[in-house]
Amino acid sequence: MQALVSIQIGKPRAMESDPAFALSSKPWRTAIFKAPVSGKVNVGTEGIHGDGQADLKHHGGVDKAICVYPVEHFEYWRQQLNRKDFGNGAFGENFSVAGLEESSVAIGDRWQIGTATFEVSQPRQPCWKLARRWQSKTLAAQAIDSGKTGWYLRVIETGTIRCDAPIMVNCGSDPSQPRFSIADANDLFYGKQRDLKSLKQLLDVPQLSDAWRSELQAKF
What we know:
This protein is of the alpha+beta class and about 220 residues long. Helices cover about 20% and strands about 25% of the residues.
C-alpha cells in the first residue's frame, strides 16, 4: 500500500561546534532536524505550515516544497551506519512514505494526499549537512551511489493532510511523454549513464525542476 507514514517539520536553528565530533568542529545552521507532527497538517505552495529551511539557495521553494524519503530504506542505513536510531525523519525529510521508491516514482507523477495535490519535481541531492548530522563523512556519497536519495515534491493544490493517509498516484497526464523515474534521473545526472538522447528527453519533461534543468544543461 502506498501511504504517508509520518510527517516531519522543523525550523532552522544554530548548532554550536562540538570538538568531540570531527564533522562538527565549526558552528553551523540547519533545519535538517525535523520532528514528527500528528493530526491535521496544512500545506501551502512552499511546503508544510511550520516548516522551514536554513539555506534557501539550495533548499525549499516551490519546486522543493516537500522532501520525501521511503521508509523501506531505513533498515539498509541502520546496517550501513551501525545505528538503531535511523528512522522517520532521519534524512531530514518532510514525508516518510511506504510503497514508493526511486525506481517506481517518476518526474511529473501527481500524488493526492488528503485534500492536497503534489507533483514529483526532482531527486534530492544529499549534501554535507546530512553527513554532519550523522557524523558520517561519506553518507552523502553513499546515498548517491546507492540510489537511495529520496526526492522532492511541488504543491499543485494546497490543502490538509495527515499521517497514515493513503497516497493516490497519477502517473503523468501525457502518455506520449517519456517517463523518467527518480532512479533514471539520478543515473543520468551523476553520469552512470552517458546517454545524450536520454538527457535531452529528460530536459524536455516540463515538470522537471528549474534547478535540475539548469544543472543538466551544463552537462552538454
